[in-house]
Amino acid sequence: MTTDEIWLTPEAHAKLREEYEYLTGKGREEVTARIAFAREEGDLSENAGYHAAREEQGQRELRIRQLKSILDKAKVGAPPKAASGTVQPGMKVTIAFDGDVDDTDTFLLGSREMLGLDGTVDMAVYSPQSPLGSAIIDRSVGDAVSYTAPNGKLISVTIVEADVF
Asked: Which DSSP state fits 87?
């Protein structure tokens, strides 16, 4: 499995595909119509409706690009089973921060779309491409790893647990 793959349930994939199709079809038509209507109101420099509609258009186009990227990388179904205790995308991982074994963090290594659509799962999500994700991929329970955080600080952790999500 590569770190670029995003594993989605069939339900999550269908929901994201539905959102993508709406935003690229009817959603675009709706925001375009709002922009056109706001233009007809006159002076665009002081037209709050026009500026709000343009902002919404920008946000929707960003979401379209995000969805396209996710759907292009998506693998639908269950992630392949990794060796027991070996960290792979799609796993629930617990790490302990070195120097404080009581300070642990449990998270999903994957994408937030893997958490499901019902919103009942409340868990942190780290991308396999993140500094932490890259450091722990293919490592085993008990391994100590270090990575450089975005703020430049070197952080050392030990993998405590790695289970299929």
From this structure: -
